[in-house]
Design goal:
With 278 residues, the protein is α/β, with parallel strands linked by helices. The protein has a single domain, classed as Collagenase (Catalytic Domain) (3-Layer(aba) Sandwich), CATH 3.40.390.10. 26% of the residues lie in helices and 18% in strands. Strands 1, 2, 3, 4, 5, 6 and 7 form a seven-stranded mixed β-sheet that branches. Helix 4 crosses helix 6.
């Protein structure tokens, strides 16, 4: 790997997006092979994919997630707002961590997703705390999205998302997004790469996730939720936006916990890597 690796490019089809995505129906097997060839190891034993509903023709939700085990944040009690508590660990960080950069990037990338939901009429609020200022969140504070940083992973992975689900309560207690600042050879990632990885991982944390059966990713390289980094994609595609809207129009099996359950959670992890250009 060179010191400045080249990342995968967009598919050069030049076709209208809706037509290009219709190839999923005609050639779904071939598209799934693209996913299996990535640096990640997508979950095997895929179940049959349901077609997207009429209102979300570009949605890849059923290709990424099992419709029977959907995960997403929900409003708590009588409060109509979906409040997402984000706890950033800015204390236990690797060398080269830039606190001011991440203090700007984290809310900006999160709002890329949440603004789509707000435009759909969802009342979504966020509470972003930094451990250097407020300490860790209380143990009984309900579901928390943790964002952590480490030097590197041992494999070709730039970030991971883990969700702790309490099966008996059908809710998740916490989510942890972990970002690496360097590749496995110790070469520092450019900031646009780490911020793009964050945008991808936040998609997982908001619910584009699979506890079983599916890949937790889009099969289209022009989407931010494709499992490898596309150097030309640092925002959300039309399909990304329709997928998160589709997800938040549905009732999830696993919601965000209002308080910490007594039962022990099960941790599910999905890793987002990148593939250097050959």
């Amino acid at each position: 790997m060179t010191q400045n690796p080249q990342y995968t490019q967009s598919a050069p089809w030049g076709l209208p997006e809706l037509f290009r995505r219709s190839l999923r129906v005609l050639g779904r097997t071939a598209l799934l092979l693209v996913v299996f060839d990535c640096s990640e190891d997508p979950q095997k034993n895929l179940v049959n994919v349901e077609p997207p509903p009429e209102g979300y023709p570009l949605s890849y939700l059923y290709e990424a997630s099992n419709s029977n085990t959907l995960v997403r944040w929900t409003a708590q009690g009588a409060d109509p707002a979906i409040n997402i508590h984000v706890a950033v660990d800015d204390i236990d960080v690797p060398a080269g961590f830039n606190s001011s950069f991440w203090a700007n990037v984290i809310p900006a990338k999160l709002d890329m997703w949440l603004d789509v939901l707000r435009q759909d009429g969802h009342d979504v609020t966020t509470n972003i705390s930094y451990q250097s200022k407020t300490g860790p969140p209380p143990a009984d504070s309900g579901a928390v999205l943790h964002i952590k940083f480490q030097d590197k992973f041992d494999s070709r992975v730039a970030g991971t998302t883990a969700i702790d689900i309490v099966q008996i309560n059908r809710c998740f207690t916490s989510e942890t997004v972990t970002l690496a600042l360097r590749d496995s050879n110790g070469t520092t990632y450019p900031q646009f790469i780490t911020s793009t990885v964050l945008l991808h991982e936040l998609g997982h944390a908001l619910g584009i996730f699979a506890t079983s059966g599916q890949t937790a990713h889009s099969p289209d390289s022009s989407d931010i939720m494709f499992p490898t980094i596309n150097i030309n994609q640092n925002g959300l595609s039309a399909a990304d936006r329709q997928t998160i809207r589709h997800l938040y129009s549905m009732t999830p099996r696993y919601r965000s916990c209002a308080t910490a359950p007594l039962a022990k959670p099960t941790t599910y992890i999905v890793a987002a890597g990148y593939r250097p250009k050959d």
